[in-house]
Amino acid sequence: MNSLHPTVTRVADTQWQAVGDDRVVGRGDTAQRPDGRLFVSIDAWHGAVFDRIAHAMLADLPAPLYTVVDEDDHEAASAWERAGFTFARREWGYRVPTDPHVTGLGPVRPPQDVTIVPAGEAEEAPLRALDRVVRDEVEAAAGWRTMPAEVLPRPAGSTVIDPSKYAVAQHAGRYVGLIRVAQLLRQPRIGLIAVRADHHRRGVARSLLAHTLGSLHRAGKASAWAEVDESNAAATALFEGIGARRAGSTVELVRS
């Protein structure tokens, strides 16, 4: 069978492979996110191969299914649309400056009764408890699907993989806010910033951001990366208010 009309085989629970002319010409994969949604991805050079892999995967998998594409990648978006996927939501990518003279966060301090525990110093048990609380609060409101989500393997019941990535805000001996930063080689990534509902509108998130960006600046990092759902007006205002600039966008698609 030629490379544009390959044989597609499910080679593992989460993997499909297209073979034509005795070589692999495309792959499909699935990954389940922490909220339970199943995301699919396909890597193929030709649209015809993509379509064959998509047809095989969709026949094997239960709906709904999700995927994510760069909004500027019109070819990929069209391929998924041919497979029956439609628009679900958009996420803006922001390049966030770290220099306090640019962000205006230099003078920002935590509320009087709140202290910041630096990354790597938070106690694991109360950190995990806070993470669970804020996730439940988000799910009860806008829904966790509107928050940036890293596709990471997670032990059953665990939502914090590496506690050293988190700085937290502490009030009266209790953790009330957190920020997670992945120290990637090229550019640090702010993966999450969240505050308990009973501590909203006190400047806790802003003080966490001031602490974290200040630390990155002192470490020689000129900017960080963050993603924000376009419907999240509070997060958009927080980042744009410190000089963050949109530098890209991704679109989540769904097939029901």
UniProtKB/TrEMBL annotation:
Domain annotation N-acetyltransferase: ranges: 114-256
SUPFAM superfamilies per the UniProt record, alphabetical: Acyl-CoA N-acyltransferases (Nat) (SSF55729)
Lineage: Bacteria, Bacillati, Actinomycetota, Actinomycetes, Kitasatosporales
Annotated TM spans: none
Gene3D superfamilies registered for this protein in UniProt: 3.40.630.30
Full protein name: GNAT family N-acetyltransferase
Residue ranges that the Swiss-Prot or TrEMBL entry lists as coiled coil: none
Pfam families the record matches: Acetyltransf_1
InterPro entries tied to this protein: Acyl_CoA_acyltransferase, GNAT_dom
Protein source organism: Streptomyces luteosporeus
